[in-house]
Amino acid sequence: MNQMTPPALAFEHITDWVFDLDNTLYPRECNLFAQIDTLITQYVMNITRLDFEAAREMQKAYYRDHGTTLNGLMQTFAIDPEHYLATVHAIDYSPVLAHPELVEAISELPGRKFIFTNGSTAHAESVLERLGAIGLFEGIFDIKAARYQPKPLEIAYADFLAAHGVDPRRAIMFDDLEKNLRVPHAIGMATVQVVAGAGFAHEQCDAWELGRGDAHVHVHHVTDDLAAFLKRCR
Fold this sequence. Notes:
Layout: E1 16-19, H1 32-48, H2 52-66, H3 69-77, H4 81-88, H5 100-107, E2 112-116, H6 121-131, E3 139-141, H7 154-164, E4 171-175, H8 182-186, E5 190-194, H9 207-210, E6 221-223, H10 226-231
Parallel strand pairs: 1-2, 1-4, 2-3, 4-5, 5-6
Helix pairs in contact: 1-2, 2-3
């Protein structure tokens, strides 16, 4: 190892590797989630009959305060979650490119690999197909498996751990939102925030969505290159 090579990360105790999906397994810069975000705004407008600006404000408030806009809408308007998910995931997946380096890095990790997403399994499978990662993960724990109780709610993590027999003290969580790493840290998981590259900005993203958790004790590591980070794990 020369002076320019970052040191390896000592994760010998890790047996379960848990990955968020959106803006984590694919880069935020490809703007796939921006498509979903646009469809969510339209869905809120259709349900509430609000204009664009008011619907957008409600959408983001629900996302911030309830974990997902879906959770807020279910509590307030009793919407059908299956219809919502099918509607907002009717997107073009072509911006997600094959990523053989990431697939190789994940496949070489010792232990089990899981996806833990606030989206649907169908959405996750569409992303994995584009990445070239079908069959790479032990399981996908989606919002339906979580009984529509999303991250960062503590019950969502408890349900995930119970469903797959994961010992949090021997597990690591990767997520793009620092708030979704609070519970994992509290229960003993190692945590990694996957962020956009320096200088990234998007008119559809509120500041908290792009915030880095470097200064937070519950965020143990921050990376803008997941494949490179994983190659340093041992």
